[in-house]
Amino acid sequence: MHDKQDESVARLIEEFLTARATRKPSPHTLEAYRRDLRTVAALVGEDAAPPLPLDRVMISALSPRVMRAAFARFAAPRAAASVHRAWSSWNAYFTFLVAEGVVAGNPMPAVGRPRTPLPQPKPLRGDDTPEELLESVAREDARQRDPWPERDVAVVALALCAGLRLSELLALRVSSVGGRVGERRVDVAGKGGRPRVVPIEPELDRVLVAYLDSRARRFGARSVRPDSPLLVDRRGEPLRRGGLQYLVDSCYRRAGIGDRVPRGARLHALRHTFATRLAEDGASAAEIMRLLGHASLASSQTYIEVTAGQQRAAVRSNRTHRVLSGLLGDILPR
């Protein structure tokens, strides 16, 4: 066991993040870890007597009692989901420290964490909205400085017809799309290091071929080498997170469907639409789990439950029910 008195929480946070980076998380995920860990550690320092700056907080100070007090302060102004995420970050941090022999045990089981409901699906609203979006994106828009409908359709179609996350889209290579005719697929580097294979239908395959052909015409055959990123910007550079988000937003604006996109689910709304339509067409929770790369069956089950609720609401909207209600008042005993 190390001499715990000499171990700075802040320095160990950076060691933990370095170790975590080998799992290839997104920069956004790593920054969320750092923010959660440093924020709670700073609260520990503020509660000390006398108060200590973050770089003077030692790992030996982090007893269950101290962590409970810090998390109580952390939780007061924040939503349950934020507290739950921070708890998970600290649990992973202490698990790392135990494995490294820095501390003897993990105090986090003694720190309460709120239960958070599973996030509800946020598909595009309107039965025909996905088709309207694709048709609009496929048309060249004279207002664009450098229209590239083949690329834009490929991005939207991959999210709508394969259910890919933003990070998964960015990680795709040209060689990620493969397989024999009739058995085409896309190999996805999924969240949490869980790879999966998503079958793609001939229509999506043709969209991707048209996009790569247009890219070769723009930038030359070398631009579509197997190890090249699948999605690029208008200069032929790999598409980045902000660029992909902006592209999807611009597609919504051009289609005039911004009011049908759920708040806080811009690109994710396309993935949720894919999953919701799977559920509507009778896919099981296990099938949805495999195709979307969910870590648990419960996440996939939410799509089936939402679909069942929508079906019941549709049945309930039938005007005949209002007629029945009036008749029942006449024929049932009071």
Automatic annotation (TrEMBL):
GO biological process terms held by the UniProt record: DNA integration; DNA recombination
Presence of the UniProt keyword DNA-binding in the record: yes
Coiled coil: none
Record-linked InterPro entries: CB (IPR044068), DNA_brk_join_enz (IPR011010), Integrase-like_cat_sf (IPR013762), Integrase_catalytic (IPR002104), Integrase_recombinase_N (IPR010998), Integrase_SAM-like_N (IPR004107), Tyrosine_recombinase_XerCD (IPR050090)
Residue span, Tyr recombinase domain: 119-316
All residue ranges annotated as the Core-binding (CB) domain in the record: 7-98
Molecular-function GO terms, alphabetical: DNA binding
Superkingdom as given in the UniProt entry: Bacteria
UniProt-listed Pfam families: Phage_int_SAM_1, Phage_integrase
UniProt-listed PROSITE patterns: CB, TYR_RECOMBINASE
Listed SUPFAM superfamilies: DNA breaking-rejoining enzymes
Entry keyword set: DNA integration, DNA recombination, DNA-binding
Region feature Disordered, mapped onto this chain: 110-129
PANTHER family, alphabetized: PHAGE INTEGRASE-RELATED, TYROSINE RECOMBINASE XERC
Protein name in UniProt: Site-specific recombinase XerD
Species in which this protein is naturally found: Micromonospora halophytica
